[in-house]
Amino acid sequence: MLRHLQRKTPGEISLVAFDRDPEVRRSLREERRHPYHTPDSGDTTPAAPASVKPEVKIADSVGELVADLDALVLAVTSDSTREVVANIARGSWARPLTLVNTAKALDFQTGRRLSEIVAESLAGTGRSYTYAMLAGGTIASDLMLSEPLGMTISCADAAALPALRRLFASRNLWVEATTDLAGVEYAGAFKNVVAICAGMVRGLGHSYGSVTHLISRLAREIEDFCVHRLGADRATFSAGSQCWGSDLWMSCTGKTRNQALGRLLGRGLSLDDANAAMAERHKTVEGVQTLRAIRVLVAEHEAELPLLTIAKRIILDGEPPRLLIEALMQDSLDL
What we know:
Distance between the termini: 49 Å
Structural class: alpha/beta
Oligomer: single chain
Strand order of the largest sheet: 3-4-5-6-7
């Protein structure tokens, strides 16, 4: 996202970046590039080093980062959200801050949305902020290479949406806006699980048609649950929605982390071994955290989510991946 925003007209915005890894900060400041996002760091990274313009300031602390910001993009893993927001709360904000989260997941401890975790973390601090989420069918390499892409910006405060659209939209990024924050948060999280399952079907050796069959069935199951049980807008889960339709197909069929993990599971690796293989490439897979959250969220509704329930048992409990195909085809003759 930093590379995308630094393409704005000079003087239009000022950028400050921070990473808690000292080596990342050193590399960004001294070499103006990210030390891990390089041509040889895996198949989901760009074909050129992730360079950073000289005018981008690299902060040495969270306090320095938030000292004079209007908007803060949180590009952190879901399980780091509590810690990061707590650190942000200890900083000194010069004015009301807009927090834009990019993590497509739920809180794995409680199954709650990350917007709720942020609200809880900032409650009682007296800090004025607006929360938004950015989601869509993009991966870092495509965004860095200026591919024509689409995303959804969601915020419960409709008045904040025009400025947020202007901030992120560009010639290569089309941005739609919605006030259905809950729906976008659920869409971004659940599509991770669908992508892992799509990868498992591939890892089991099945065809592309088998993958799309799984995607369509599981996606419909999740859509109905989110609309009927979680209060999401049906439009958020449409094929034309960037946070669901676009993101779902890109995540399930593109070179993504969740899909790559699913392939490893389908080939017989345990979750621990598959995660270790991804970690060697500096890849964190949010779909696993989403499933841990889903255990809480759907505990009383498993009968409505047969495919998702089987996926949870396979990925988290180590049951055989072939059970996903058996569940997918279970009622094919009961007509």
